[in-house]
Design brief:
alpha/beta, 6-stranded mixed sheet, 10 helices, Shikimate dehydrogenase (NADP(+)), aromatic amino acid biosynthesis
Length: 284
């Protein structure tokens, strides 16, 4: 393969700990190469005590932008100059752009989820949506669902989440928080829901037998089901959906499209999705 790195090559990356397992370098380098952009993307495994040093390096080396993964999606905000509206609402950041030393934080998870839904020809506007879990990924998804004008979002979680009340004050879509222990309420809410979104780690490998939905009687014909887990590719919940003939998706699309949102935030260009899917060996 031809070496295209020169003295003019720009640098992007991802910071987290650990991070060597990340899909992001393959995703973004494929996009850069496909579009003929003279940039590269690397993984930076940085410990907590050196996060400030990393930010200094970003400015000193003129790193053009970077993604942020666990455990730094909250802590990184201490080092930023500006947040987008989505990042302010979620109080979390997974994408940073360096504009002449000014660091701007964004979160692309929720928009990535929406784009994955649109690829499936699912719509959001004027629909009732049930969300399982209220962690960081759920917050980003809820914000984006609300901004896409969902009719109502019902969130089921084991504990209280004050950010739900804060979002209700800032967004026009009603967001209702209910206890996950109230299975009867969950069953009733799913009866007229368009989409069920599973955002917890229940069912993730190696604990693949876990599922927050007790049986397929909760799932009506026509219900769309999204589980943001991608390992395994088909969780117990998605197996249930498949057996019932329902339309469903796992978390691969969200991973792909949150990267695409970051890419466009940095470069102003649309990520070449087909080529990136091939590089990541994602199923069509």
């Amino acid at each position: 393969m031809k070496n295209t790195i020169t003295g003019y090559t720009g640098l992007y990356g991802i910071v987290a700990h650990p991070i060597k397992h990340s899909f992001s370098p393959m995703m973004h380098n494929t996009a850069f190469q496909t579009l003929g952009i003279n940039d590269v993307y690397l993984a930076f495994e940085v410990t907590d005590e050196h996060l400030g040093d990393f930010i200094t390096s970003v400015k000193t080396l003129n790193i053009k932008g970077f993604n942020v993964s666990m455990p730094y999606k909250l802590k990184i905000m201490d080092y930023l100059d500006e947040l987008t509206e989505e990042a302010k609402l979620c109080q979390a950041v997974n994408t940073v752009k360096n504009e002449n030393g000014r660091l701007i934080g964004h979160i692309s998870d929720g928009q990535g989820f929406i784009k994955a839904c649109f690829e499936k020809n699912w719509h959001i506007k004027d629909e009732k949506i049930v969300v399982l879990g209220a962690g960081g990924a759920a917050c980003a998804i809820i914000v984006s669902l609300a901004k896409e004008q969902a009719r109502e979002i019902v969130v089921y979680n084991r504990s209280d989440k004050p950010f739900i009340r804060e979002l209700n004050e800032k967004l026009s879509c009603p967001i209702v928080l209910k206890s996950l222990s109230d299975q009867e309420a969950l069953k009733n809410d799913l009866k007229d829901a368009y989409l069920l979104v599973q955002t917890t780690n229940v069912g993730m490998s190696p604990n693949v037998d876990g599922c927050l939905i007790e049986d397929d009687s909760y799932l009506h014909q026509g219900l769309k089901i999204a589980d943001i887990i991608y390992n395994p590719k088909k969780t117990k919940l998605l197996e249930m959906a498949k057996d019932k003939g329902l339309d469903y998706m796992n978390g691969e699309g969200m991973i792909l499209y949150q990267g695409a949102v970051s890419f466009e935030f940095w470069t102003g260009q649309v990520m070449p999705i087909l080529e990136v899917k091939k590089a990541l060996e994602m199923e069509e």
